[in-house]
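ARCHIVE RECORD
Type: protein–small molecule complex
Small molecule: adenosine-5'-triphosphate
Source of inputs: curated submission
Record status: active
Notes field left blank by submitter.
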Amino acid sequence: MDILKLLSRSTKQTGKNAPGKGAVTLPSAGTPANPQLFHDEVPESRGKKRKRGGEKVDVVKQGEEDDEVDFFASKTAVPKTKKGRRESESEEESKKLETILDEPHLLDEEECRQILRSHRLKHTLLPSAKSQEKKVKKSKKGKADKKKSPSKDDYKQLYPQPLTAFADLRSTYRISGRLAENLATQGYKIPTEVQMGSLPLLLQPETAIKDVAELEGVSAVDLLAVAPTGSGKTLAFLVPAVNSIVQLRRLSEDKKHHGLQAIIVAPTKELANQIVNEAKKLSIGTGIKVVGMKKGMRVVEENEDTVHEEENSSDEEESDEDEEPKKSQKPKQPIAKADILVTTPLILLHALATKNPEEHAPLPSVKTLILDEADVLLDPLFRDQTLGIWNACVNPELRVTLWSATMGSNIEALASSTINERRRKLGLETTARVVRLVVGLKDSAIPNITHRLIYAATEPGKLIALRQLLHPTAKSADATQSLRPPFLVFTQTIPRAVALHSELLYDIPAEAGGSTRIAVLHSDLSDIARDQVMTRFRNGEIWVLITTDILSRGVDFKGINGVVNYDVPNSGASYIHRVGRTGRAGRDGGVAVTFYTKEDIPYVRDVANIIAASEKQAGKPASEASMQKWLLDALPKPSKEEKKKLKMHGVEARRSGLPSKDGKGDKMKISTKSGYERRMENNRKGAIQGSKRRAKEVEATAEDGGEESEWGGLDE
Ligand SMILES: Nc1ncnc2c1ncn2[C@@H]1O[C@H](COP(=O)(O)OP(=O)(O)OP(=O)(O)O)[C@@H](O)[C@H]1O
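STRUCTURE (tokenized, with ligand):
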């Protein structure tokens, strides 16, 4: 059986984007009506929200009826503010507003269960350190000191109040009126699943969860949230962070004072910048200062132990893990005025460096720590840096939330043990307070995109196939066979991204903008160049952006029509994040194309499994699934060791993307020319050089008296 041929054939386009099934909806075609991904049927009498007065409101429909409805305006008398008119909300104003708000809307437990189920939300209270200790003590009687891993019974399922409309943030969870206005101004109407499941819990756990003995007296929970790409996690972590700071600022005498209260860590500069922008939009008029961490910025008072970071030390991520902070010769900067600081891990850790490399300056005022893309931040590459920041947050009231579309059980275990360990060190109660929220199926891509796996026998074949997507022939002129720009193309390494960029540079006709329409972004570029490419791509000036995994996480480009995995991703998680750059906020029509060659066969299974799970999650009948079970079973299963190697280094043969000296890497070179053509070209060059050399030798021999020399031959 030829697996390769079968795989290509079986991954033909199916489903709603298949040829002949009507027009393709493109994700760039406007704002989605409903950003929610899951709306499972709920029986008639259920899923209804009961107001205190007994009046029933259809939960799912709320917010869908009319695009123009202003949910905040109808419920509150929040005055429409002009830009800059009100720096911060006064206590008096907010009290006045609260008295005219609707009464809180709370659902009974059965209603909560139904709604949570219909939106595929699952909350689990993770076992507390205390309960585990008790277990170990019990089991130790006479036995070796063996740690017992928690059993299924140690996990308790919770059914907290879901947030069914943004209006409830104000009426039930009493968020700041200004924050509510900012949300309304940005047009948020229907909460996404992760917002439904996390906001009540983070804003007011005592209202959101009742009658759970383990959480009695717990005023703040820590949260591990696993929710699909593009499902609005940013808003879910920003709203509670902004709100808690507004509330504290209200009580503060000195409104001009800015003390660092929340830290948001993200793995790349691009994502950190994006979070800064979102946080600033939510903080308009609240007086909150949101700052993106920059090189040389000071965040703590220096004492004799503090090492001041050199201003021009090189930057974080990808290339700079080994960097050590050095003593600055430059004058000290004042401490950055910030309430919320958004940072990549290393740059903040440098700013906290002390003379003792094991210790970091503490951040006692920080009460909120948010790890976005937490699984990457706790992966070995960033782990020490992230834990360094975490340990520097010594405030006993610290609340930690971790967010990602993918989170392995090892990361979950590390996170909850770090939370418990930290509390133990600070002499705090180690009772249960870590909640895990999972939206949809863990380890599955978003259900609203179409996946295509395309086999190319050789590297040049991949390039030809990519060109076909860019320039569909008359035969394949169907929209499903082409990729409508804008789209992202991911390669395994920086040299390959650069090489692919130069190959495709002139593929877009001059009338359409030519080479200005295509760009490359990677970590070897300067910050300014990276920012410029991001802005041009966001503005729609760039149509095809070639990049590495640096853009695979978190970055939100609303109108992306497709993602091309020119090189197979290094892991299943990487596939989920890369393809999740399309189909954001529930938009339909995104396409994810993955090319693979013979070298990739051992690793395609993970991707194929994710595609199968995603199609299942989307409710695609087995007959329409692009991934047939027998085919999945036929694909080789990589060993744990192979998977680990792939995750760390990618497909070995493709690592450099440049011709190797021994010629072996040559077949992985990005070029339309086949290995044979390139060899012939080399041979021709060799022949020319050889004939020139011979001519010289003939001349020399003639001069020397005619002794025959050895012939140089062709280059191999
Ligand atoms: N309730 C909502 N209604 C409509 N759009 C929303 C809503 N919440 C968020 N969005 C939009 O959805 C898009 C994706 O949000 P966001 O970037 O927070 O996703 P994410 O879950 O963090 O994704 P990723 O896992 O890729 O980081 C953004 O453009 C955001 O403005």
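CURATOR ANNOTATION: Residues 109-128+153-300+334-439 form a domain with the Rossmann fold fold (CATH 3.40.50.300).
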